[in-house]
Structure formats: C-alpha cells, structure tokens
Design goal:
The protein has helices at residues 7-64, 95-107. It has 126 residues and is mainly alpha-helical.
C-alpha cells in the first residue's frame, strides 16, 4: 500500500513556507529600521555636540571682544513695559522625536504627482 500525499497537506506546507519567508523578511526590515534609528541617534548626538562647541566658541569670542565705552549724553531713564508673551527658546529635538520622524518617513508612501489638468477641446489653444 502506497501513501499518497493529500493536496491539503501540500497547501499547508506551502503556506507554512510562505509565512516563514514573510517572517524572515519582516525580521530583516526591523533590523534595518533599528540600524537607521541607531544612525539617526548618532547623527543627532554629533550635531548636538557640534552646536554646543559652536556656542562655546561664540561665547568665548564675545568675551574677548572689547567694546569702546559709549559717550552718548545721559538721558533720563524711561521704564518700558515688559512684553507679556515671551518667546519660547528654540530647543533641539530629542532623540526619540528624531527616531519617530525617521520611522514615519520609512513607513510613508512615496510622494505622487498630481494628475495633469484636463483642458476641454473648445478652450484648448490651436
């Protein structure tokens, strides 16, 4: 008596192989995303360090600069009202925010061009 493979068994094996392939592909995508996130964090830290060094250089240069004393005539001091809406200082984005935008860009669909406008035949230039 010979054992014959059933078509259901063949389909299940094929489905299992496809699922394993999809899982491997998803795992690879996760690895790539983690690598990009790591690179983005590294770049962020490097840029933050460069900004800090530049700020220190500016502060050092400003401290060395000698300004001539003002010789303008003295005027009575006038008090000015302070503005109520104070501007918030610009802050650098955190590594988590940078990583979030990188991941959103990876998952976003590529940009598409708008369709060409349809010009009726009676208005079209001849």
């Amino acid at each position: 008596m010979t054992i014959r493979k059933s078509p259901i068994l063949n389909r299940l094996k094929a489905a299992a192989a496809k699922a394993a392939a999809r899982a491997a592909a998803a795992k690879e995508q996760v690895r790539e995303a983690k690598a990009q996130l790591k690179a983005a964090r590294k770049l962020f830290k490097a840029e933050k360090k460069a900004a800090k060094q530049a700020r220190r250089k500016v502060d050092a240069a400003a401290a060395r600069t000698v300004r001539p004393p003002k010789t303008a005539p003295k005027k009575p001091a006038v008090r000015r009202a302070k503005p109520r809406a104070a501007k918030a200082p610009e802050t650098m984005r955190s590594a988590a925010e940078v990583a979030k935008t990188v991941i959103e860009r990876l998952h976003a669909a590529p940009p598409t061009l708008p369709p060409e406008p349809v010009i009726p035949a009676d208005i079209a230039p001849k």
